[in-house]
């Protein structure tokens, strides 16, 4: 469609929908054509579908809710139970296979392949834990591996949806959808309490069926073709920023609802219904913005327009701007993959170049000694709660809810950049601070219920931020086009850490089990008391300090790079103003 060319007569034509009142000018906006509204609404249904998928597929976070029951049914030791948790995390090491599949199959096929893997992986475990069938330990291990792989395929499908349909708001779309992955455990805990709170094997049945049902519900948005207009006008940008604001507010409301529901004594079914309504309501967010624009006059429209929206460090947009400007003014793009010892933002890194970077290994160690420890802690919540006489369901809900908060906060660099001049890597370092505080709080007073819940909340908050922010940081430092491969290389630390940290924790757990008071069924050993995880908390606390130090080093080394990008954006903006003053 050819763009409409505005002339001077447009500026002189009176606006019948506006009126003057003193010095303040009000504008009542006309609703856009119905076809335009429907097209924009379809774009947002894609984001809502990605939210539904993420909210239903964080199934690895509820492992601790049924792990004790699974351990008892299989008659295995704590070390062998840890290997099952490692198998679920090991599926992430094969996440690259989803990228290869996308090269040969449409996105909908990849989505349903992920649903099929989760259906089989968790469904077979449910048959085992309910004693319907009996399988050897090796096949249960493979089922856990398949279930973990399905999560990676789901994540890849959601990432592609966000990148295709929101190229100019990619960071916001990714941070919002990834955030909902953190509430899966809380949602399933709420459903568990609403349906049958006496049977922990219900978690496995929900893990198997719900993602499959959600995949069918999300099929129509997934099949929606992305808009060909990747350079939206100012009006649509303002509209998008307001919709993102509403969606983030709804996300916070959802998290508070789940958190309060875990401590409420009222009807669990009513709370579960409320959570479902909050997940469906985002479909109305674009319509709310249209209604607001039409029924409420916009005061000082120009200043409102200029202040609306988020401030983002969009690498793809910066590169396209540089290319466009180069054709007009001869501006030369001097970015290379290496300038001294500092990684340039947005430069593409091959595998060989990636592993030769000091910044990558600082990043790897910070993640390994931060987010990965938090994930292993969540895998052990069932045994931690059991050893201290606490409710595992409550701890899982607290961890899940605060992990969701942390994921939402990962968008802070995008919408708080003007107020706080902190880079993404700086926020990453700040996010790691609660982890050592939480573990040393557990060392001092782990037997107290309040201390245990507070520490769990801090660890969930910290690890949630890290999980969500890592995708954008990887894109910033090592190139947006290579983020799929490079991020999968980064998260290889998760299965490694799950194996190492989990094995150490399991060994200390079994070493402190007293034969006089510990019931033994086959190889299954239950440890009761504060000593079961005391040394583990000390070890994890010391390692998390190493993660904080590594993240601070990364922040110091990358701060000049972010500053250089800001200068590039300022120079590009001023150049465009000189070229097109209108």
UniProtKB/TrEMBL annotation:
The chain crosses the membrane at residues 102-127, 139-163, 170-190, 202-223, 243-260, 272-291, 360-378, 426-445, 457-478, 490-509, 537-556. Residues 1-20 are annotated as: Disordered. Residues 43-286 form the Nodulin-like domain. InterPro entries: NFD4_C, Nodulin-like. Keywords: Membrane, Transmembrane, Transmembrane helix. It is found in: Membrane. It is a multi-pass membrane protein. CDD domains: MFS_Mch1p_like. The keyword Transmembrane applies. Residues 348-561 form the NFD4 C-terminal domain. Signal peptide: none annotated. GO terms for cellular component: membrane. Its main location: membrane. This is Nodulin-like. It comes from Arabidopsis suecica (Swedish thale-cress). It holds the Pfam family NFD4_C.
């Amino acid at each position: 469609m050819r763009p409409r060319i505005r002339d001077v007569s447009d500026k002189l034509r009176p606006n019948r929908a506006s009126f003057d009142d003193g010095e303040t000018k009000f504008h009542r906006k006309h609703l856009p054509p119905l076809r335009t509204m429907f097209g924009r609404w379809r774009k947002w249904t894609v984001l809502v579908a990605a939210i539904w998928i993420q909210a239903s597929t964080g199934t690895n976070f509820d492992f601790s809710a049924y792990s004790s029951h699974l351990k008892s049914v299989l008659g295995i030791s704590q070390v062998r139970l840890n290997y099952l948790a490692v198998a679920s995390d090991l599926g992430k090491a094969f996440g690259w296979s989803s990228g290869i599949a996308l090269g040969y199959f449409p996105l909908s096929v990849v989505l349903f392949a992920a649903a099929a893997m989760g259906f089989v992986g968790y469904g077979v475990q449910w048959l085992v834990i309910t004693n319907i069938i009996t399988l050897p330990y090796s096949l249960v291990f493979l089922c856990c591996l398949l279930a973990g792989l399905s999560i990676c395929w789901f994540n890849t499908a959601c990432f592609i949806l966000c990148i295709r349909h929101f190229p100019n708001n990619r960071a916001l779309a990714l941070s919002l959808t990834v955030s909902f992955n953190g509430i899966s455990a809380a949602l399933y805990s709420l459903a568990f309490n609403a349906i049958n709170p006496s049977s922990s094997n219900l978690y496995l049945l929900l893990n198997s069926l719900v993602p499959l049902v959600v995949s069918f519900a999300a099929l129509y948005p997934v099949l929606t073709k992305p808009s060909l207009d990747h350079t939206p006008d100012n009006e649509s940008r303002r509209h998008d920023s307001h919709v993102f604001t509403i969606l983030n507010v709804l996300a916070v409301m959802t998290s508070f609802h789940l958190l309060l529901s875990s401590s409420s004594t009222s009807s669990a079914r009513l709370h579960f219904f409320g959570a479902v309504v909050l997940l469906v309501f985002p479909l109305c967010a674009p319509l709310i913005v249209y209604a607001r624009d039409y029924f409420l006059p916009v005061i000082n429209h120009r200043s409102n327009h200029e202040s609306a929206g988020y401030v983002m460090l969009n690498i793809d947009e910066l590169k396209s701007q540089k290319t466009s400007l180069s054709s007009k003014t001869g501006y030369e793009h001097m970015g290379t993959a290496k300038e001294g010892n500092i990684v340039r933002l947005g430069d593409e890194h091959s595998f060989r170049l990636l592993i030769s970077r000091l910044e990558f290994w600082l990043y790897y160690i910070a993640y390994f000694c931060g987010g990965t420890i938090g994930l292993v802690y969540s895998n052990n919540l069932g045994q931690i709660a059991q050893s201290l006489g606490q409710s595992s369901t409550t701890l899982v809900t607290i961890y899940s809810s605060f992990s969701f908060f942390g994921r939402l906060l990962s968008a802070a660099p995008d919408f708080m950049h003007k107020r706080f001049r902190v880079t993404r890597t700086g926020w990453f370092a700040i996010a790691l601070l609660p982890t050592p505080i939480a573990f040393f709080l557990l060392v001092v007073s782990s037997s107290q219920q309040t201390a245990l819940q507070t520490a769990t909340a801090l660890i969930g908050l910290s690890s949630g931020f890290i999980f969500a922010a890592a995708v954008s940081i990887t894109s910033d430092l090592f190139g947006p086009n290579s983020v799929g491969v490079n991020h999968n290389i980064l998260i290889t630390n998760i299965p490694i850490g799950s194996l190492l940290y989990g094995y150490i924790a399991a060994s200390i757990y079994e070493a402190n089990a007293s034969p006089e008071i510990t019931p033994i069924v086959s190889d299954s050993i239950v440890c009761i008391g504060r000593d079961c995880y005391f040394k583990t908390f000390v070890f994890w606390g010391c390692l998390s300090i190493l993660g904080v130090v590594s993240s601070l080093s990364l922040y110091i080394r990358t701060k000049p790079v972010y500053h250089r990008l800001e200068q590039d954006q300022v120079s590009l903006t001023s150049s465009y103003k000189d070229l097109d003053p209108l």
